[in-house]
Structures are given as C-alpha cells and as structure tokens.
Amino acid sequence: MESKVNYSLVGLFVLLLSICLIAFAFWLGKYNDDEDQYRHYKVYITESISGLAPEAAVKFHGVDVGLVEHIQINPHNSGEVELILKIKKGTPIRTDSAATLKFFGITGLAFIEIAGGSNNSPLLISSEDDPATIPTAPSLIKRLDETLSSVVTKLSVTLDRTNAIMSDTNIQNFSQTLSTLKVLTGRINGYQDEIDLLLKNSAQTQQHIDQAMIKVADSAGTVKTSMDTFKVTMSERLSPTMKSWGETSKKTNALLDKIDTAINRGDYDLHSIAAESTVELNELILQSRILQNEMELTLKSLRESPSDLLFKQAKPNPGPGE
C-alpha cells in the first residue's frame, strides 16, 4: 500500500513539472504577447548586412519600435536581402519613409533605422497576408565606399595623366625649351642698347610725323585761302571787263536793230542815218578800244607775275563810265 502512494506522488509531480515547463516555454517564445499590437513590413537591401541578426532592433528616429523578425535572400533577386520587420502599430511609417542600415558605434552590431516622411504623405498600409515594402536608402558606409571609389578612380586617372606628362621625352623637351629661352633671353639682353635706341628713334619719328601733320594741315588751310583769294581776284578783275563787253554788245545790237528797222521802213536816206549813227558808232569803237587795252593789261600782269592773283590784293581799274 505504501509503494502505491509513492508512485502517485511521483506521477503528480511529473505532471505539474510538465505543465510548468510548457508554460515556461510559451513565456520564452513570447506567445503570451499580443500579436495584434504589431504589423509586419518588408525591406529589401542590396548592400551587405554584416552585423545584422534576427531580433535586431528597429528604430524610428532613434526610438525602438520593433525588431527584425526574419532575414533571408530574396528568392526573386539574388542581389537583394529580404528583411521581415515587426513594428508596433501606431508607428507613423509613411510612403516616403526610408529604412537605412546603421551600426552601434564601433561594436559592429547593426540595426534598422527608419527616417523621413512628411506629415502630408499618406501612411504605408500593411497587412499580414501581404506586408508592405519600406523603401531603403544607402547606409553611411555604402555612401563612403561609393565616394571613396569615385575619388580613387579619379585619382588613378590623374596619376596616369601626370605620369604621361612627366615622361622622359616631355622632361627632355621641357629642358630644351628652358635652354632655348635662356639663350633667347641672353640675346635680348645683348640687344638692349639697340632696342632702347630704336624706341627713342621711334618716339622722335612719331614727334616729327606729328609736326609734319600739323604743317600739312596748315598748308591745306593756306591753299584753301589762296584758292579763295584767286577766285575773288579773278572775279574782281574780270567782272568789270565782262560787264563792259556786255554793255557794248547790247549797244551794238540796238544800233543794228535801228538800222534794220529804218531800212525796212523804206527810209533810204543813208546820209541821215549815217549822221545819226556816227556818234554812237564812235562811242562803241572807243569803248571797244578801252576794253581791249584793259584785257591786254590784265594778261600782261598775269604773264609777268601770276602770283599776284593769289597773294596781291589789287583794286581793279574803273570801267568805262564809272
């Protein structure tokens, strides 16, 4: 009877221990948590996630809002790593938010940081059957790596070009150029006195040219004045003579008209006509002789001293009847 009681106690103890172990297992597996308080999101990262492990923290602007639930290679794209994030409900993840891989100091442990998103952007809706995908942004390490790669590439190109410029042939050519410049500078220094003299002569020549131009301008003015004087002189000397010739011609024409009229009237008294016209003919002949004398004097003056027409202010002789 005593042995039966001992087996019953052992069985009861085993049963209670099993129940405690099962409850402890549920507690460790967090099955007692309220799963309705979380939502799942996907993140696809193309860079290395070394240091990121499941249960890693997920932060929103530095605040813990969840954890990384699952990590695997994207079955549809081997160049991406697929992360399943478990994030508390109420976290304002919007369509323009971005997930970035960050690290805790120098420990090498990584976490996911979600940042960005304006208040005007709509919230990113996610469901258990089809988790929404949060866009990603390159991490600081990736940006530094890309920048350093670009700098190294440009530096390599610069060094290659520098080596091409500083080749032995170019250095020799540069040395020859410097030698040639040195020789040319020495020759220029040797001709310094001649150059100074040439510059001095050039200045004097320029001064002489300026003076000659001034004289030419003065001469042009003098020639213009002389031409004006010549015109005035010719006008003063020839105008009275031409006027006298005109008057004589008019009187001659009038006399001839008078004679012609008398003949046409049938007046054949030539003695009377001659008596009336003799005085006028005498006057015309006298005026013609005076004009002829004046023309001869003018031409003689021009033959003897042509410059008098330009430089001598002569008052013309009065014409007949003046």
What does this structure look like?
The protein has 322 residues and is of the alpha/beta class. It folds into 3 domains: 35-138; 145-187; 219-311. Helix content is 58%, strand content 14%. It has 6 helices and 7 strands, in the order αβββββββααααα. It has helices spanning 2-28, 140-165, 168-190, 192-264, 270-304, 308-311, and strands at residues 38-45, 57-60, 63-73, 81-88, 98-103, 110-115, 132-133. Strands 5-6-2-3-4-1-7 form a 7-stranded mixed β-sheet, with no helix packed on it. Helix 4 packs antiparallel against helix 5. The mean pLDDT is 76.
Intertermini distance: 195 Å
Largest sheet: 7 strands, mixed
Along the chain, the helix and strand elements come as HEEEEEEEHHHHH
Number of helices: 6
What is the strand content?
5-15%
| Proportion of residues in helical segments | 55-70%
Q: Note poorly predicted spans.
A: none
Query: Rg to the nearest angstrom?
Result: 65 Å
| Strands, count | 7
| Shape call | elongated
Output the structural class.
alpha/beta
How is the largest sheet built, in terms of strand order? 5-6-2-3-4-1-7
Tally of distinct domains: 3
Quaternary? single chain
Indicate the mean pLDDT: 76
Helix-strand layout with pairing:
Layout: H1 2-28, E1 38-45, E2 57-60, E3 63-73, E4 81-88, E5 98-103, E6 110-115, E7 132-133, H2 140-165, H3 168-190, H4 192-264, H5 270-304, H6 308-311
Parallel strand pairs: 1-7, 2-6
Antiparallel strand pairs: 1-4, 2-3, 3-4, 5-6
